[in-house]
Amino acid sequence: MSPRKEMHMFDYLNLDISKDHFPQYGMSARAAEALIESEAWTDCNPALNLSSFVTTFCEPEAHNILNANYLKNYIEHDIYPQLFAMETAMVRWLHNLWNGPKKAEPYGTATVGSSEACMLAGLAHKWNWRQAREKAGQDASKPNLVTGGNVQVVWKKFMRYFDVEPRIAPLKPGNYRLTTEHLDKLVNENTICVVAIAGQTFTGEDDDFQDIHDWLDAYEKRTGINIPMHIDGASGGFINPFLYPDYKWDFRLPRVQSINASGHKYGLAPPGLGWVIFRERKVFNEDLVFYVNYLGGEMPTATLNFSRNAMQIPVQYYMMLRNGFEGYKRIMSRTLQNARELREMLLKSGYFVMLNETQRIPVVALGLNKKHAKNFNEFDVSAKVRERGWVLSAYAMPANAQEVNCLRVVVRPHLNHTVVKMLGHDIVTACEFLSKNGGHNKPPSLHCEKKGSPAKC
Ligand SMILES: Cc1ncc(COP(=O)(O)O)c(C=O)c1O
After folding, report:
1. Domain co-membership, 277 together with 395
2. Which of 204, 207, 332, 445 fits as disulfide partner to 178, beta carbons 3.0 to 4.6 Å?
3. Residue-range definition of the domain harbouring residue 313
4. 204 CA to middle of ligand 1, Å?
5. How far is the CA of 200 from the centre of ligand 1 (A)?
6. Whole-angstrom distance, CA of residue 112 vs CA of residue 389
7. CA Rg, the chain, in Å?
8. For a substitution probing ligand 1, which of 114, 159, 363 has the most ligand atoms within 8 Å of its CB?
């Protein structure tokens, strides 16, 4: 019999839980729950986590949907056909929202996040490139991918995990976007695609889509080499269509063959959902699709994971039905307005300078104004506001702009106007304190910088 069987609800307080050994005996459900809750007490309140892009607010009705679906396995399409039908409908809706060609057969999938979506898109382009090269009797052993130094780490993972040479355009202080500046040195016949970002991680800006597109057109005219574009719309994918309908960032640019977005960011679904959508069915190379028969029916599978939770899918469906185009537009425009106000408030304080010029998503990316902030840095400000509970990212920009530090606030829809003003006030108060007392934080050194090759990390 378990020695803990008679444990009183409060006896768990004295338990010393080993971090090394698997627990020998169990405990009551209440005790286990209370213990886990207490272990997480000091974690941040997700609503105050403005470092993350990911949803931290959910309506009670969405909670009900989560609860009703959390035990369903995504991959079992034959067993949960209605979930699959919702996913299929949303793939078509997104293809339409992102201006996919009307006559094309929409193709895409829900993924765990943008990370899986990017990997699938990268694989499709690698496969297409290789097949075309082999068909033409050309060497297909050295694929490369061209993107900017502002790229999110998932693309670096994709390139390393799937043996694709990274060709990364360096940034420079004052320019944190992929433009056409370095393309002639990076692009060649081995380039599987150019990845451009809508709403980048570091400053929230967009890359120069139209110019890159036109440059690739001219390159094709010159060389005969046709290079597709992928748009990483992790954040911008759920902002641009609603706020900037005339802005061509999507399938309206003929070279754009695939787009990813995070349903769990401005798509407003809970953590664990991304999307990849292809311009047309044939872009997702058939060689990447597997057909399995062990879950009933013959089922195609083309995601990196087999099993995963499905609960985010009906909640994404709920958000799309509940908000519609007009609702998303209203929410995003209010959120952007809040971000602009916060930015104005911080600039007006004199402590900050703006880092992002062409901001379309509600991200405030600022650096300290060295004239007024002589004895502290962005890391000090981030640490100081943490005393009030706010979590703001501070980081050094990627190569070759490492000397520039950024303080970033991801303004999300759950922040109301009053809270945004409170946040602005708290940031300015932190700067006032630091300018009197000085700061002590140093930028954390990156693992790869220790090895002396920041450009490779
Ligand atoms: C531009 C960009 N791409 C990809 C990702 C990875 O997305 P996820 O966290 O949804 O996997 C992020 C995450 O912040 C991002 O900002």
Report:
1. no
2. 207
3. 64-319
4. 12
5. 9
6. 29
7. 24
8. 114
